[in-house]
Specification:
44% helix
Length: 186
């Protein structure tokens, strides 16, 4: 009978040191090793399939990330076609608080001569200092929490026009694949 230390008959180089194995024990030991080998092969096959699946997912994500600029322009034009004609008064700002977009309803409500006149300028250039702090705090909260925020009764100043009292609803969105804040004027 083999001792507890002996693992297999092949471990011993000197046959005089090898314990005696009964044929049934040797066959049982070989079957156990074969089943462990089969389990390892099955685990390897599962891992290989998972690896292949992850490679395909990675390739799909890479294709999405590196989209053709023409496709993103088409998506942007589609976005503009919906939002430009929307009755909601919408302004989009980027992470630097610069105005990226303003739809026609917002332009008309704020009595501006044209839509692009404020694009690229900081949102805070058009509010008094007391309102700027309140608005900035709510914008930052919307950026970081992702929740909708409201700002009540702030004054919007645009040089060619008089001041307009407005309420704002803020919500985090993506604009041209970048984080932005959508401001809806009430």
């Amino acid at each position: 009978m083999p001792s507890d230390e002996a693992q297999s008959p092949g471990e011993y180089r000197n046959t005089a040191d090898a314990p005696e194995w009964k044929p049934e024990e040797a066959i049982s030991h070989i079957r156990r090793i074969q089943s462990e080998l089969n389990a390892a092969k099955d685990a390897y096959q599962k891992l290989a399939l998972r690896y292949e699946s992850l490679q395909k997912e990675y390739a799909a994500i890479q294709r999405q990330v590196h989209t053709d600029p023409c496709q993103s322009d088409v998506a942007y034009e589609l976005f503009r076609s919906f939002v430009d004609s929307d009755y909601h008064k919408i302004i989009l700002i980027d992470t630097a608080y610069a105005i990226c977009y303003m739809n026609q309803s917002a332009v008309a409500h704020l009595h501006l001569p044209q839509a692009g006149i404020l694009t690229g300028r900081r949102l805070f250039d058009f509010f008094p200092q007391k309102d700027v702090l309140k608005i900035k705090k709510k914008i930052d909260k919307a950026f970081f929490s992702g929740e909708k925020e409201k700002v009540k009764e702030v004054t919007f100043h645009c040089p060619p026009n008089d001041a307009v009292r407005i309420d704002l609803k803020l919500m985090r969105v993506k604009y041209r694949d970048r984080p932005s804040i959508r401001i809806t004027i009430k």
